[in-house]
Amino acid sequence: MAGGGMTPNERTVVAGDRPTRVLECGNGRPLVWLHDTLGNRWSEGHSLVAEFARVLTPSLPGFDDSATLDGIDAAEDVVLWLLDFLVAENVRPVLLGCGLGGWMAAELAVRYPERLSGLVLVDAYGLRVEGALAADEFALTATMLRPLVFADPLGNAAQANLPDVEPTERFEQTLHARVAAARLAWQFPYDRKLRARLRRARVPALVVWGECDRLVSTEHARAYADALPHARLELIAQAAHYPYIEQPRAFADVVHGFVAELGEA
Fold first, then answer.
1. pLDDT of residue 170
2. pTM of the predicted model, to two decimals?
3. Whole-angstrom Cα distance, residue 247 to residue 41?
């Protein structure tokens, strides 16, 4: 995915004892962006957010190199890695998480809210909502998954980001991403205890959801917004599971409004 006019710098930081690939772009308030199961790919949405924030996108353990999955068996392991990353970068950021990354962001927020200046959850996994739609992405082919995660499954964005056959240059990264995501979410893409714990995340929060998401439905968005003590909900029209890909300008505008309300970093 090509960024919209901004090219991030790529570097490696050691978080705890784990070499971590980081994409960085922009200036201003630090915003740590945790990616979804697609992996750490830069998009137009990232570039637009980098117009008003310093965006840092670390690769979750295992997503670039299977060796970094050692010792990662549960969300708590990712939380501790993420805490090490924040210490290494010396930031108290807005933490933005998408999909699987949103679940990890919520888990950190309930444990260490003092480490964050804000929380943004985007079509996040993590909650079990009785009767709500939540498909198993690991049981679906790309062809089956596209109508669930893209409002326009035949559009260019859907075909480029979730093709039937991955391009050669992206195949290895995609394979690592699938293995790493399955390690954390194969059986249950949620934490039964998380919903009750969200009251501990006493930090300004924004819940952003594509209103057409058929992988993790908007009932999950409302559950997050209701359970977080200082949250508001924004639905993005004509977008599904990846609003920052399908509607990058609308997505960035919503995030910009939230970050502006936080004031100076």
1. 62
2. 0.92
3. 16
